[in-house]
Specification:
Blueprint: H1 4-13, E1 18-20, H2 21-29, E2 39-47, E3 51-58, E4 70-73, E5 76-80, E6 90-96, E7 100-102, E8 105-106, H3 107-115, E9 120-126, E10 129-135, E11 142-147, E12 157-159, E13 182-184, H4 192-195, E14 207-210, E15 213-220, E16 231-236, E17 246-250, E18 253-265, H5 269-275, E19 283-288, E20 294-299, H6 300-304, E21 312-313, H7 325-329, H8 351-355, E22 361-362, E23 367-370, E24 373-380, H9 384-400
Length: 405
């Protein structure tokens, strides 16, 4: 087919055919020709617990304190070290995306606010004295985001077979028992690793886009396996886009939204064959939240085929509940005071559709089949709409020469 050099040349002279993963899958579904495709862009967006940041934060003038004993940013606890930066007034720290100040604000929210340019309150204790500062991302000379594991080739659907509800990071409200509800993750056929499962173009040092910014693959992540590989990646926080990251509230505390995109050059038949994967081809293991052991297998076509890409709001159906459970339970705070939806924030997760007593919020979220029974999906922890936006952005970057294979 084409060598990488030939594809690079075609990109440079504007003759390359670049498709997003969704555009390629549509061509396949319509039996259109795909032999002319040079590059495919892939992306995923979802709750990724293994996200953390390493920051070097100025707190005080040099000579004020020796080293930090504790540190927090907007109330989110961080880990100082390993370099003490003795008497420099700087604190090197690590903050986890799953760390939280309270049950509504965590590391994912902090990363979003930093990227948005908001002022962040920093508190440091040293030798029983407290030091405080207000900083923005521009004040921080080193701010890099990492993932320990992300963009799994395949995730699992979660159910609760016990008789009692369970608080879990996989549910916004306690997950009902007796296998009455299912929650799901993963962007299926547009996921980067699903389209490059051998990590041919996702090995150490290869370029990726992390939350909208240029980054690199570190290698495979924790819990990666030949059957279910995942990635560890990093990028500077400068240049990231708030649309692709943030916090996500769950019954077990705040989680972290992360987005990863990449390109797959169609250099030979093996690459093209792997790119032809469809949602219906991708198994979705179903596991019990109690022991995380498989109890069945569904398919990503049940998650993404014909299901909601946008939540519809019907204000005339509102029962004016006080308090409004929809507003207080939305995991991304996308419900305004007047009950309308902030679609820029909306994750299309399904929580509002599931809990609104008046059915004022509408969207089809489908079901998975477990043991011959249909179990409704009450929560999606991945946003394929945002992942597709990321795919289109990378396509534009390729065409403009802003992303190199």
């Amino acid at each position: 087919m084409r060598s990488l050099d030939e594809i690079r040349t075609a990109l440079a002279d504007g003759t390359a055919v670049v498709l997003t993963a969704s555009e390629l899958k549509k061509r396949i579904a319509e039996s259109d020709c795909i032999s002319d495709v040079d590059v495919v862009t892939c992306g995923t967006c979802g709750v990724m617990s293994g996200t953390y940041a390493v920051l070097s934060v100025p707190v005080a003038p040099p000579g004020v304190f020796s080293r930090a004993d504790t540190v927090s940013l907007q109330g989110v606890p961080a880990i100082p070290g390993p370099c003490p930066n003795e008497r420099l007034g700087l604190v090197d720290l690590m903050v986890f995306g799953t760390a939280h100040a309270d049950n509504r604000y965590g590391g994912g929210h902090l990363f979003h606010d930093l990227i948005a340019g908001k002022e962040i309150h920093v508190e440091v204790t040293s030798s029983e004295r407290k030091y405080e500062a207000e900083v923005t991302l521009d004040d921080i000379p080193f701010a890099r985001l990492f993932t320990t594991r992300s963009a799994f080739k395949n995730y699992s659907a979660i159910i609760n077979r016990s008789s009692k509800p369970a608080d879990t990071i996989f549910s916004v409200l306690p997950l009902s028992g007796n296998a009455a509800q299912a929650t799901v993750s993963g962007c299926g056929e547009i996921n980067p690793v699903e389209n490059d499962p051998s990590l041919r173009f996702l090995s150490s040092g290869d370029p990726i886009i992390l939350n909208g910014a240029h980054g690199r693959v570190i290698g495979t992540g924790t819990r990666s396996s030949p059957d279910r590989p995942n990635l560890s990646v990093h990028a500077d926080m400068q240049g990231m886009d708030t649309r692709f990251c943030g916090g996500f509230l769950t019954a077990a505390g705040p989680e972290c939204i992360t987005s990863i995109g990449t390109v797959v050059p169609v250099s030979d038949q093996d690459v093209l064959t792997r790119l032809m994967i469809r949602d219906a081809d991708i198994a979705l293991p179903v596991v019990d939240i109690e022991d995380r052991q498989p109890v069945g297998t569904a398919s990503y076509s049940q998650v993404w085929t014909g299901t909601a890409t946008r939540i519809m709001h019907h204000p005339q159906r509102c029962r004016s509940c006080d308090p409004c459970m929809v507003r207080s339970s939305c995991p991304v705070d996308a419900i305004r005071a007047d009950k309308t939806i902030n679609h820029q924030r909306c994750f299309v997760c399904g929580t509002c559709v599931h809990i609104c007593k008046g059915s004022a919020y509408e969207g089809n979220f489908g079901f998975i089949t477990v043991g011959g029974a249909d179990v409704p999906i009450v929560l999606r922890q991945s946003d394929r709409r945002r992942a597709e936006i990321l795919c289109r952005r990378i396509k534009d970057m390729l065409i403009r020469g802003e992303f190199q294979i």
